[in-house]
């Protein structure tokens, strides 16, 4: 046993087990950064887009971010 987390499906458990591995099998073809899980690579790929999907709607701001958490952090700190 590696940790005490409990999962309702074997697929979720298998996905989580990858976080305990040192192996980073999923590499970004654009910058070479490697990840333990495919979904983490998928999230990273958004950072290479010119247009980020999460835009601040405050007047005159125009900032955009790769994920909702980053946008929320921006809004909390600047608006």
From TrEMBL:
One of its GO terms (molecular function) is zinc ion binding. SUPFAM superfamilies: beta-beta-alpha zinc fingers. One of its GO terms (biological process) is regulation of gene expression. Its main location: nucleus. It is found in: Nucleus. It comes from the Eukaryota. Keywords: Metal-binding, Nucleus, Repeat, Zinc, Zinc-finger. Residues 1-25, 26-53, 54-79 form the C2H2-type domain. GO terms for cellular component: nucleus. This is C2H2-type domain-containing protein. It comes from Daphnia pulex (Water flea).
